Amino acid sequence: MDTKISEYILAIVTNDMTKVQGGGCPVFYAENAEEKEKISLLLARALGGVVHDLENGVYFICKH
Amino acid sequence: MDNYAVVILAGVVAGFLSRLLTLRSDYRHYPAFPHGYFTHLSLGFIAACLGAVAIPAIAKPDYVAVTFLVLAAQQFREIRNMERETMTKLEETKLVKRGADYIEGIARVFEARNYLAIFTALITSGVAHLFGWQYSLAAGIICIYLSMRLMRGAYIGDIAEVVDATVHFEGSLLMVDDVVIMNVGLPETREKILKEGIGVLIKPKNDDARLTLHNPGQRMAIIHDVVSILGTKVDINETELVPLARKHIDKGYLAFFILPNEPDREILKQVIKNVPLIETAQGTALKSFYGRKAAD
Predict the structure, then answer these.
(1) What InterPro entries does the record tag this protein with (chain A) (predicted)?
(2) Which of A13, B103, B120, B239 could tie B143 with a disulfide, CB 3.0–4.6 Å?
(3) What is the pLDDT of residues B101-115, one digit of tens each?
(4) How far is CA B172 from the centre of its chain?
């Protein structure tokens, strides 16, 4: 059985850098809401995570 | 000697029939057909033989043989381990898991049904020995009927009602009626969920039922059974559409959410009602004094 990391934030996508501070995971800056959605979708598919919305313009991709 | 042959034959036939009739390969995909099926029939046959020769061995009397029979019966304990191991291994590659509780429940049933085959064979051959083979026919039929009837177990439909509910969003939170299911980020995914998602509430009828539904293992069993009949749109890197069952923490009912391949709400409700209750998950609070006191 392989070991996996779960319940872990893999990436943060935002168009407002003032809402996010550096931490343990990469932060992707998007110009607008549309780009933010696109980046989130691509990241989620590539990483096998789920996109969550913090409702303040910040999306994050989490592995469950 | 001829007499014993009839006695043993009666026992073996009844025991084997009992195993055959309690073995079902259905939507749970277990045991697999035909090889898994055949393994269990063979074991059932051995169990029936064991049960059938016990009475003639005592009657002969051959006590050494009886001791060996007891030793042989111990082997059937291994069935549970075997089933558990197989299913746990299969679990690793499953997108929607059965859960440890369900696996344990299934493994127990397999073990118990072999014991039932032994007892059926034992009683039938006993009756054949004491009263003649004509009576053993009736004894065999009664034993098989009892083992199918009494070991039936309970279903979700016995302890809970399943009612319609609406899937909607509050901000980014996916809700089924008033229960929060999960946070969904992407607007596209939200639209898809609103269009194709189905939600139902599973309302427990009493406190015991509430405790049963509280058990995550029981919830995994519900989700697994629904998915194996209605399908799901979840895929390996597409985990957002995963079916979930969450509890209303104050009222104790479950909210169930799924994006099925076959969007049929009535069938979904029927499937949930027919999910077996897991033996180890069943709440029994009302059987205890304090449980009854706390309930009123």
Answers:
(1) YpzH
(2) B120
(3) 999 998 888 888 899
(4) 37
Structurally, how many domains does chain A consist of?
1
Whose tokens are 């995550």? That residue is B216
Residues of B in contact with A41 (CB under 8 A): 186, 188
A50/B185 CB distance under 8 A: yes
Q: Distance between CA atoms of B9 and B46, rounded to whole angstroms? A: 13
* Separation CA B22–CA B48 (nearest Å): 14
Query: Using alpha carbons only, what angle is made at residue B12 by residues B7 and B16, rounded to the nearest 5 degrees?
Result: 155
**Which residues, listed in sequence order, are joined to residue B175 by a DSSP beta bridge?**
B168, B180
Q: Looking at the complex, does the CB of residue B171 fall below 8 Å from at least one CB of chain A?
A: yes
ipTM higher than 0.85?
yes
Residue numbers of the domain that contains A25: 8-63
Which amino acid makes up residue B108?
R
C-alpha span between B294 and B296 (Å, rounded): 6
Rg (chain A; Cα; Å) = 12
Tell me: the pLDDT tens digits for B228-274? 999 999 888 788 899 999 999 999 999 999 999 999 999 999 999 99
What are the sequence ranges of the domains in chain B?
Answer: 2-150, 156-284
> Using an 8 Å Cβ cutoff, are B217 and B275 in contact?
no
